[in-house]
Write a structure and sequence with these properties.
Number of strands: 22
CATH topology of the largest domain: Alpha-D-Glucose-1,6-Bisphosphate, Chain A, domain 4
Mean pLDDT: 88
CATH architecture of the largest domain: 2-Layer Sandwich
Largest sheet: 8 strands, antiparallel
Number of helices: 13
Radius of gyration: 24 Å
CATH class of the largest domain: Alpha Beta
Shape: globular
Low-confidence stretches: 1-11
Distance between the termini: 47 Å
Length: 473
């Protein structure tokens, strides 16, 4: 399967994606029009579709219940407008109903299927024709959602794509650092020594030659006292876009890795792909060493290293242990109806609350103060790892989900990155929140630093309300 993303002169809220699948056009068309097939690939990674009903005719109805990994259900309805088998589909989808049953988001979709000598080139054009302020976050993630869906479609119609995916471990993370600095962290031995490896590991470098054909010979020292010799041969160094290398590890574990660095705002989206010789070898390595979790821990350490290199600002840290299982506490943080019952300073009541739980999704809320004033805020999710971790950029907002200043301080940072972890022990859950300003001026950082005690008191009251909520739910 090959993939390209096409963008031309497009209206607001338009996504155009093209994929070529090694499958005949009739099969790809069937995957879009047979509910048994559609249920297997529709939606982002990790989503399922327990309800999937299609009446494939002009005027026919579409009904799908997309279910997130945490169990949240996102109902979607729609209508087919045009069906030219096996060449073209035109349909409208509607989602996110308000209290009156009206859709907050409506998308007009055109899908074409072109025969390429036994292969099929598929083009999706999705235009959001109705976008309520509450769902602007969902629209912002429309491109990524479609991209993941079409990747899953490849696994349905192209068995080779499934096997290729089974040979890979892929980990992605967004860092609040410019691409050049993230790239430097991968290509400077002094930097690598400070973050390379999973939790508890350290690294000694003996040879480091970051160029195509150059070697990196290192020994990783595990927390168990064992040493793990490794040899890496760089095959590509393309600053600051990507690098690739062949890895020869202790015990004969060999694989090929690519690392890509994409600008995302003022930050960097990094994607690490580890490709093994077969699906069986990939599964064996994952079972033996937990390679996926090790890669995730390694990138978390990279994030901590980059944060230490950023302009100084004291990190706000707050921990609290709750007498409730982790799954319940995580749901209290990630379901809108639950959040509305405890979130916010003491004395405040929630006026509005919408939540789109996925990377790029938005939690948007409004509150009424005891004195009668209103306050709006939002979180834009960066990481959602149920039931262990949330990362989001928090901002003050307005009823239209814009980004605004603190209502009482013009020197408060516009954006604060928060990472919330959930750990369970003996049926109790410890929440640890770590927050620091991003893209902030020196004055804004100092304002944030000076406010820690007030933040501790405010979040302490909020956590008190969470205790009360958990006791009765």
């Amino acid at each position: 399967m090959t993939a390209t993303v096409e963008r031309g002169a497009a209206p607001a809220h338009e996504v155009v994606l093209t994929r070529t699948y090694a499958a005949p056009r009739a099969l790809v068309f069937l995957a879009w029009t047979d509910p048994k097939h559609l249920a297997n690939w529709w939606g982002p990674h990790g989503f399922t579709n327990p309800v999937c009903e299609l009446d494939v005719r002009p005027g026919g109805a579409i009904r799908v219940h997309m279910t997130a990994p945490d169990g949240t259900v996102y109902p979607m309805t729609g209508t087919f407008h045009e069906i030219v088998e096996p060449e073209r589909l035109v349909f409208t989808t509607r989602a996110f109903e308000d209290a009156t049953g009206q859709a907050l988001l409506e998308v007009h979709n055109t899908v074409t299927f072109a025969d390429e000598g036994g292969k099929t080139t598929l083009t999706v054009r999705a235009v959001a024709v109705k976008v309520a302020p509450e769902v602007t976050g969902a629209v912002a993630g429309m491109n990524e959602g479609w991209a993941q869906s079409l990747d899953k479609l490849g696994g349905v119609v192209d068995p080779g794509a499934t096997e290729a995916a089974a040979r890979e471990i892929v980990v992605t993370r967004v860092f609040d650092a410019p691409r050049e600095r993230v790239f430097d962290a991968w290509t400077d031995a002094k930097h690598l020594a400070q973050w390379w490896g999973p939790d508890g590991f350290s690294t000694t470098t003996h040879t480091f030659d970051p160029r195509a054909g150059g070697e990196w010979r290192l020994v990783m020292h595990g927390p168990d006292g064992r040493d793990y010799p490794n040899r890496i041969v760089f095959t590509t160094i393309a600053r600051p876009h990507c690098l690739a290398y062949k890895h020869e590890g202790d015990g004969g574990v060999n694989f090929f890795s690519t690392v890509t660095f994409d600008e995302e705002g003022t930050g960097t989206k990094l994607t690490l792909r580890m490709r093994f010789s077969s699906a069986a070898e990939c599964a064996a390595v994952e079972q033996k060493s937990g390679a996926r979790d090790g890669a995730r821990q390694t990138l978390l350490r990279l994030g901590e290293f980059l944060a230490r290199q950023a302009p100084a600002s004291r990190e706000f840290v707050l921990s609290r242990t709750f007498d409730a299982p982790r799954a319940l506490v995580f749901r209290a943080w990630t379901e809108a109806d639950r959040l509305a019952k405890w979130f916010g300073p003491k004395g405040f009541t929630v006026l509005a609350c919408t939540l789109d739980l996925r990377p790029g999704g938005v939690f948007h809320y409004g509150m009424k103060a005891p004195q009668g004033g209103e306050m709006w805020g939002k979180w834009v999710f960066r990481e959602v790892e149920p039931p262990e971790r949330l990362a989001f950029v928090a901002s003050f907002s307005d009823a239209q989900c814009g980004t605004g200043r603190h209502p009482l301080s013009t020197e408060w940072p516009l954006e604060v990155l928060s990472v919330v972890t959930f750990t369970e022990n003996a049926g109790k859950t410890t929440i640890t929140m770590r927050s620091h300003p991003i893209h902030a001026t020196e004055t804004e950082r100092k304002t944030f630093d000076a406010a820690h005690e007030g933040m501790r008191a405010g979040w302490g009251g909020t956590f008190d309300q969470l205790v009360e909520f958990l006791a009765t739910n």
